[in-house]
Amino acid sequence: MDNIIKVLPDDVAGQIAAGEVVQRPASVVKELLENSVDAHSTRISLFLTDSGRSSIKVIDNGSGISFDDAANAFLPHATSKISQTGDLFSLSTFGFRGEALPSIAAISDVVLKTRRSTDQIGTLVQISGGKVLKHQQDTAPVGTQIEVRNIFFNVPARRKFLKNDSVEYTHILNEFKRVAISHPEIEFELFNQNNAVYQLKASTFKQRIVSIFGDKMNGSLLPVELNTELVSINGFVSRTDTTRQRGYEQFFFVNNRFMKHPYFHKAVMEAYDGLVAEGSQPFYFLNFSVKPDQIDVNIHPTKTEIKFANEREIWQILSSTVNQAIGKFERITEIDFEKDDAPQIPVFSAGNGKQTITPPSVDVDKSYNPFQSCKSGYYSQGKSGENWENLYARYKDKSQQVTSDDCFEDSGKASAELNGIGSVSSYICFQFLSKYIVTPCPEGIMIVDQHRASVLMNYYDFAARIEDCRVCSQRLLFPELFTITPEQAEMLPVAIPLLTACGFELSDMGGGAVSLTGVPSSFLGKNTDYAGRISDLIDLAVSDKDSEMEKRKESFARYLAGQVSIPYGKQLTNSDMSSILDFVFSQIESCTDSCRGIDGKRLYNIISADSIGRLF
Ligand code: ADP
Ligand code: MG
Asked: How far from the centroid of its chain's Cα atoms is residue 504's Cα?
């Protein structure tokens, strides 16, 4: 029988190897940008045509490549970055495998133009599907310019699997951001179809984050800085009041290389546990500096997970650093001197003799009687003006005893219109730990979670109103103008009708600017970071891109409910408590199963009369 094993022809082997490195246009962008960074460029420009399908061009002002190296760079495993195994443990470059250029050239048309500053004349190399078509001297500015056209032109199966342009563009933007954030000292530009999307000047880390994610980030970033023998961690985490519904803006870098690290991610998440609303997440931009031999660099070219030698110890350091950052800065009003419009602090002029300083005075209301206010306020949950005597009279006929049934009596009628329309019932109840509402019920004592109940109540309300486009909108006195990211701008045509149904009045001003003229009336006075809220909602639309309209409406309703709901720690008025209890009792009536919030957690618990009895 004939032998059947054959060595694959070079072009087939090349295409298979290329599949490892180049999965989509964004992989090309990543490799080219990283090569430019490795070449010590101070300015890197990226030009895209058709989200990279037709052309990806990167121009840098880095070291350039010599005439011979320019062709050799396209040979498999040709690299200038390491020469022996030992070098792997002291890597300071992105690249080291020498796989990117040959892989890219195997599946596209590539034109490279390059010149070193010491050379009079530059070099041109043209390759198509791995075959060198031209290798000649040519004029070229100092640096390297490389254009990759018609990606996967010779691998139709792969080309077919590319997603639509906006998906590929989003992947490219992600790669661009990762490199740009971790190298703020380099100037970056991104042009899509000749439109400037980003023009980022060399800056500090913080300024770079703000120029990529928008002004809304300024003031929301808490600095993190710690240096230990093992690791240095620096960067920013978000304030607890400016978290996001989804974790898009979460970036870890190790020695300026983007990485994903689910274990470290957990350390950051735990620091925010209990401090942020259910379902929302902090954003973070954290750079770990470790000795190169402390991480396993020999990772797969497309993988971003990185293994550390001392993961447990670093986890603990990270956890306590983030905790400290939150604790230290959370309650201090920050004056941001990096911001252009930093507040003017008036200087006290000691020499000004005319200035008179009066000591603070204390006014006492001599007629105030604390016991009087007690009567009509806290303990009595009846109509306003009702006093102890009246309250007592209410139960007079029932053997002078207040039983739980009495208080529950009204709950059947508790279908009062929510959201302040119509009347609400009154209950004997009080607030406990600024978190729970306690009230008697036929089975014993009911303890209601104020936040969860309020979220669910608002969720139903928003869901119904969004469905019927009935969310009341309130015009802002002054329109708010703010910028959104290019990804968000792409999603605007889909997001605007949804936002309008939610009560936002928003118009697209073009060039990534939007003008906000109205907000849902329930938002007024509660949350004035409207730009942040809109940005969150557009992000939700981006992430639900492929979902049905129904699903989008649902996630918008969930989000809005979370925003306007009563938080823990808020002191409730009698009418706040009554409307929540009305809602809970109406839920109990309509639910067959136990009632749970939108996060699946319990809305209330009941301490039964029996267990109270057993206490005695
Ligand atoms: P690696 O980056 O792993 O070394 P690549 O295939 O990406 O492998 O690049 C091969 C070589 O080509 C690099 O080692 C470098 O010497 C050279 N090179 C690639 N891009 C550039 C660039 N933009 N500027 C200067 N040299 C470059
Ligand atoms: Mg490389």
From this structure: 21
Report the nearest-CA residue for atom 27 of ligand 1: 35
pLDDT at 354 over 90: no
C-alpha distances (whole Å) from 136 to each of 71, 109, 140 are: 10, 17, 12
Report the pocket of ligand 1 as residue ranges, CB < 6 Å.
31, 35-36, 39, 60, 62-63, 65, 73, 78-81, 95-101, 144
Sign of CA dihedral 23, 26, 30, 31: positive
Q: Which of 31, 35, 57, 145 to mutate to test the pocket of ligand 1 (most atoms within 8 A of CB)?
A: 35
Distance 82 CA to ligand 2 centre (A): 12
Nearest-angstrom CA–CA distance, 603 and 126: 67
Report the candidate in 31, 146, 147, 174 with the shortest Cα–Cα distance to residue 93.
31
Beta bridge partners of 113: 124, 145
| Residues 124-157: tens digit of each pLDDT | 999 999 999 999 999 999 999 999 999 999 888 7
250 or 305, higher pLDDT = 250
Mean pLDDT in the chain? 79
pLDDT tens, residue by residue, 65-78: 999 999 999 988 77
Ligand 1 atom 20, closest CA: 35
Any idea of the CA torsion for 79, 54, 62, 182, to the nearest 10 degrees?
Answer: -90
At 369, list the tokens. Answer: 């009687």
Element of type H or E holding 221: strand 221-227
pTM score, whole prediction = 0.61
Q: Kindly state the DSSP code that residue 301 receives in the 8-state scheme.
A: T
What pLDDT, in 10s, does the model give residues 15-62? 766 666 788 999 999 999 999 999 999 999 999 999 999 999 999 999
Protein residue with least CA distance to atom 23, ligand 1:
36
Ligand 1 atom 12, closest CA: 73
Interatomic CA distance for residues 15 and 286, integer angstroms? 36
* Contact call for residues 122 and 114 (beta carbons, < 8 A): yes
